[in-house]
Amino acid sequence: MTSTAAAVLMDRLGLTEDELCAVLGVDPLTVIAGDLDDKPQLPILLALTGEAAERVGEDVLRRWLRAAGPGGRPLDHLLASDYGAFEDDLDAIRMERRLEEAAADPSGTMSWEEYKAERAGRLRTPA
């Protein structure tokens, strides 16, 4: 992975340089040098956040990262390297988007009971 990939993640999520380094567990020189091949979380986070950015837009994703959600702030999960909780956060935003789409066009969507069952199965309760 290159420093360009790190810059894409930083821009997509609106991370500061310090936050990016903390998320990747590296120092700034490592990012600048692009010496990130041993950081498997970078391509995974790019893929996960790329899909979310396509669905809701990068501006919304940047605000969402710092907003408190059902399990806490997604940024806090990233900084703590709690990638499971961060994936749960992304699932929650995906489910909320599905609800918005269903409200706009209710034909062929899941019932409220189906939504609750699916969401409950994806979200972990905070410790």
Describe the structure.
With 127 residues, this protein is mainly α. The protein has one domain. It is built from 8 helices and no strands. Helix 4 (41-56) packs across helix 5 (58-66). The termini are far apart.
Short description, anyone?
With 127 residues, this protein is mainly α.
**Secondary-structure element string:** HHHHHHHH
Q: Sheet with the most strands?
A: none
How many alpha or pi helices? 8
Number of discrete domains: 1
Regarding quaternary structure, what we see is single chain
Radius of gyration (CA) equals: 16 Å
**Roughly what percent helix?**
over 70%
**Mean pLDDT across residues:** 85
Sequence stretches where pLDDT stays below 50 over 5 or more residues: none
The percentage of residues in β strands lies in under 5%
* Sheet/helix structural class: mainly alpha
Give the total of beta strands: 0
Task: Tell me the layout of helices and strands.
Blueprint: H1 3-13, H2 17-24, H3 28-33, H4 41-56, H5 58-66, H6 74-79, H7 83-104, H8 112-122
Helix pairs in contact: 1-4, 4-5, 4-7
Q: Can you tag this structure with a few keywords?
A:
127 residues, single chain, 70% helix, mainly alpha, 0% strand
